[in-house]
Amino acid sequence: MDLRTTIGYSVINDWLQAKGYHPFAFQEEAWQRVLERRSGLVNAPTGCGKTFSVFLGALIDFINHHPTNYQKKAKSGLQLLWVTPLRALAKDIGRAMEEVIFELGMNWKVGIRNGDTTMSDRQKQKRQMPEVLIITPESLHLLLAQKDYPAVFEVLKIIAVDEWHELLGSKRGVQVELAVSRIIGVRAKQRDLDPQRTIPAVIGISATIGNLDEAKQVLISAVLKQLESDTSFIVKANIDKPIDVESILPDEIERYPWAGHLGIKLAEKVLPILENSTTTLIFINTRGMSEIWYQKLLTINPDLAGVIALHHGS
Length: 314
Description:
Strand order of the largest sheet: 3-4-2-5-6-1-7
Order of helices and strands: HHEHEHEHEHEHHEHEHH
Distance between the termini: 44 Å
CATH superfamily of the largest domain: P-loop containing nucleotide triphosphate hydrolases
Largest sheet: 7 strands, parallel
Number of helices: 11
Number of domains: 2
């Protein structure tokens, strides 16, 4: 199936053009692989649309299978399992997905499952799984420990593992590998009983990483064992992002603020960068320090109230 000839692609492409966007070549390549139900790895720099390279592919696939009623069809079961190690970004990812779904007029639901998820939300998910579930590795293992968990994954099409470069080689990465292997094993048994069922695709999403092929093989090994031949892929974005590095140093080093406030000595030098830039991210090591910086910048320039925002994981 050629991506560009499908109704799903037309719907998504029209939506992007209406917003003044156009898909990158690597995104279209990833969408094609999603339609082919192939497993692999998407590699692209941060901020270049890795999330949409898989999520929009899932929407295109769904629209293609329900061309006449994709907007009305509801309660379709879990279609996309989105594993992320970053609990702090789960809500942001969910909001971005919900915005697309709303603007397309679809009845998909996006759920989040992590340590902050309330018991009532967990019960709602148990009664009716959302079409997209954003989950941490730890919560995924707890989900796999529940009674009748195989039913959760009966119609699952894609397992997307976000920030794979952060997980690879860590204990949490092993958790993901084990969980993926278990889900694939369950679906293989379901396929044996019903040949119409297919093995879900497993797609890693990664920024900078050394050995792409090894990273891919580690993640999708359980899928490859179920296939007659290796049809896996690596989609790599050829996007050059120019980076200029500029160091900001204090004018004098004779005296430093007391512990915990060391960085704000440079707040006066950071402020002009904020004022002269369209978008600025300030990465802080700790929650406490980020709150100190936030208050300090507002103290220096009260006009920033409502313009800057604080974001941390707790």
